[in-house]
Amino acid sequence: MINKLVAKIQKQNAPVVVGLDPMMKFIPKHIKDAAFEEYGETLEGAAEAIWQFNKAIIDNIYDIVPAVKPQVAMYEQFGIEGMKVFKKTVDYCKEKDMVVIGDVKRGDIGSTSEAYAVAHLGKVQVGSKSISAFDEDFATVNPYLGSDGINPFLKVCKEENKGIFILVKTSNPSSGEFQDRLIDGRPLYELVGEKVAEWGNECMGDDYSYVGAVVGATYPEMGKVLRKIMPKAYILVPGYGAQGGKAEDLVHFFNKDGLGAIVNSSRGIIAAYAKEEYAKFGEKNFAEASRQAAIDMINDINGALK
């Protein structure tokens, strides 16, 4: 799957991923009104509004954006109905030939970690049949429990030719409380990066590993160091735009071949219609605003890389 991700990034000349994180406050009134009229102000109504919102955005970006990253918590908050829409969104994106990164941040050990890996990347045994549950292409994983938490994911990745992105240096302000702590004179995130490189050697694609890393755009100097520590790991870069990450800060996350990183934007794309620069589209044309915001993001990053 890492080979497909790289190929799509090259074909579309777009090292970007759109985070499908549909909070109700982002969904235009006419979408919510229609859903609530049909299902009432219920979890089913909320789920229908999320689905119509997602579908419109996907229809407007699939030909220019190689990947999406649905954040599972935004769906879980609506219970079973929300999780149905999560699965529906994953399936629809794959119908459009987009790569799907499940932002699930799982982290546990033993049979629990194995079950998480099976749920999101593998197949569960049901009698004589093996069935995919959520069936994303990649999943995000928390490495805090060490190899016991990662190895079950590596096993499924090898079986299914899928991948993971391991949290190394996250974009949030308090990440340094743990990630920047010095161990034998070195910050913890560097040691985690070394383990990512080690795990990745077990799961290589053509040029890059199935095992990638999450490194926030808000820490460009750390990204520069980690790029050298993990030369074969694809780096998923959150924090662009709304969190303050700028295109010029991202250059060192990439390798000299112009590959090696994929930059995420969530509300900066899906809620673009609410931003002043895209107000001309209007609320009813929210999906067209998302497309323009995605084009602008692609041009911004490619311009910085040149």
Key descriptive features of the protein:
single chain, 306 residues, alpha/beta, TIM Barrel, eight-stranded parallel β-barrel, 12 helices, 12 strands, 45% helix
Q: In words, what does this structure look like?
A:
By secondary structure, the protein is an alpha/beta fold. It has one domain (2-305): Alpha-Beta Barrel (TIM Barrel). It has helices spanning 2-12, 29-39, 43-61, 73-76, 79-95, 110-120, 147-160, 176-179, 188-200, 220-229, 267-270, 286-305; strands at residues 16-18, 67-68, 99-106, 123-126, 129-132, 138-141, 163-169, 182-183, 186-187, 211-215, 235-237, 261-265. Strands 1-2-3-6-7-10-11-12 form an eight-stranded parallel beta barrel, surrounded by seven helices. It has a two-stranded antiparallel ribbon with strand order 4-5. Helix 3 (43-61) crosses helix 12 (286-305). The protein is globular. The chain starts with a helix and ends with a helix. The model has no long low-confidence stretch (mean pLDDT 95).
Strand arrangement, largest sheet? 1-2-3-6-7-10-11-12
**Whole-angstrom Rg:** 19 Å
Tally of DSSP helical segments? 12
**Overall form:** globular
Main sheet properties:
8 strands, parallel, barrel
In CATH terms, the superfamily is Aldolase class I
DSSP strand content: 15-25%
Briefly, what CATH class?
A: Alpha Beta
What distance lies between the first and last C-alpha atoms, to the nearest angstrom?
27 Å
Count the domains.
Answer: 1
CATH architecture: Alpha-Beta Barrel
SSE sequence, one letter per element: HEHHEHHEHEEEHEHEEHEHEEHH
Please tell me the overall pLDDT: 95
Number of strands: 12
The assigned structural class equals alpha/beta
Query: What's the CATH topology label?
Result: TIM Barrel
Share of residues in helices: 40-55%
**pLDDT < 50 runs, ≥5 residues:** none
